[in-house]
Write a structure and sequence with these properties.
409 residues; six-stranded antiparallel β-sheet; 6 helices; single chain; Jelly Rolls; alpha+beta; globular
């Protein structure tokens, strides 16, 4: 690792802070915490010296008691026209002692980065069902890091952007498996554009709860509990908390949970209405082994460990991702590949979808690639062996007893 060749790229770009986010901002009293000084129209530097598996991190401080509800990262190439990239993860950690973060508080896996935009992440999942919510205290220091899955093109990027002027004790890099280093000492020219959005408190309102009932809480608390927030300042007395109640594929009424249960219907959850609800959806189900089944109920698909692809969706080539497993090489090595990809390598053997390249016993060969031990005989097999041995002994004794008779003859 040479700081003179790895950081910085040395390219100055104009920052246009258009926000790419998975949801609209809430009405809560949100505060954006940042180290960088970049504003719309300002110039920044692309830091394209990262290798696969390395991380960029910012040490940030909360201005209030609240919750971290979003992370923002500015991502840019020289051209600004590169396709989206999926990086490894974004982690929120306790600050520890600079430059060594402590306990991981939350992780966003596989963040999708858009070139030339301030990418904002408010959910832990791709479906937008699990909101990011990390409790934080006034004055508490914490760390947000981006781990790279792809090495940026050193002459173009895209990669994370910095301003000019690297603050001491605010930026660090986890480099090449060597541990954490002060980014400024490695030649990084500014503060990473890694920001956190903190909900410093909001007004309460009616929340229609899972299972029926209503409570007056903040929108964030309502979302975490799986409820449907009816608006700030709205009282429970002003809402009915009706939801879609399904009786058949084309039979639905908007009822309270209690009334739906009384009518032996199936509640669809807070915030649902018949006008936008599909009752008992069936479609393609991608199974854990990569196969696909048609016309499966969404609930049955999830219960079997599958991924439901949507109502009326049919199985087709390439719809379901193929599982990966240990691909055992003739050299004794191992790669984590799909069965199809493993088959491309001559003299390789795929160990199965539930296998990996872990070498727990330290033999130098992946455990799942080692030859299985010889089978232990079953009780019936032991019995057969004992019978053969017994017959052999009896035959030997008989033969010895008869030999004198033959000699006398």
């Amino acid at each position: 690792m040479s700081k003179s060749t790895r950081w910085p790229l040395g390219c100055v770009v104009v920052v246009l802070l258009s926000v790419i986010t998975s949801a609209e901002k809430s009405k809560a009293a949100e505060v954006t915490v940042q180290n960088d000084s970049l504003a719309d129209g300002a110039t920044g530097n692309i830091q394209a010296g990262f290798a696969v598996g390395e991380s960029a991190a910012s040490w940030l401080t909360s201005p209030c008691d609240g919750n971290i509800v979003a992370i923002q990262i500015f991502w840019r190439s020289v051209t600004g026209t590169e396709p989206q990239s999926i990086e490894d993860s974004i982690s929120i950690m306790e600050a520890g002692t600079f430059t060594f973060p402590s306990t991981v508080l939350e992780t966003i896996s596989g963040p999708v980065m858009t070139d030339g935009a301030n990418n904002e992440f408010r959910f832990l999942d791709d479906m937008g069902a699990i909101p990011l919510l990390v409790p934080i205290s006034n004055g508490q220091e914490f760390v947000v890091s981006l781990r790279f899955l792809n090495a940026p093109d050193p002459t173009n990027g895209p990669s994370i952007v910095t301003d000019t002027g690297c603050q001491v004790g605010k930026n660090a890099i986890d480099a090449d498996g060597l541990g954490w280093f002060n980014a400024c000492s490695l030649g990084v020219s500014g503060d990473f554009f890694i920001r956190a959005v903190i909900d410093c408190g909001s007004l309460t309102g009616a929340c229609c709860e899972v299972g029926g009932g209503c409570s007056s809480v903040t929108s964030t608390t309502c979302a975490v509990s799986g409820g449907a927030f009816q608006g700030e300042g709205v009282s429970c007395g002003a809402v009915s908390c009706q939801e879609a109640c399904c009786f058949g594929p084309a039979s639905c009424l908007d009822l309270t949970v209690a009334d739906c249960n009384l009518a032996s219907g199936f509640n669809q959850g807070p915030g649902t209405l018949c006008g936008t609800t599909i009752c008992f959806p069936t479609g393609a189900c991608c199974n854990p082994d990569g196969t696909c089944d048609n016309d499966i109920l969404d609930t049955d698909c999830v219960a079997s460990g599958g991924v439901f692809q949507g109502d009326q969706v049919q199985c087709s080539a390439g719809l379901c991702p193929q599982p990966s497993g240990a691909c055992c090489l003739i050299s004794g090595g191992c790669l984590l590949l799909s069965e199809t990809d493993c088959g491309v390598i001559p003299n390789s053997a795929w160990a199965g979808s539930q296998t990996d390249c872990t070498d727990a016993n330290g033999s130098g060969i992946a455990d799942d690639c080692e030859a299985p031990p010889p089978p232990v005989p079953t009780m019936s097999e032991w019995g057969a062996l004992a019978m053969v041995l017994l017959l052999n002994i009896v035959g030997t004794l008989v033969f010895r007893r008869k030999r004198p008779d033959i000699h006398n003859a």
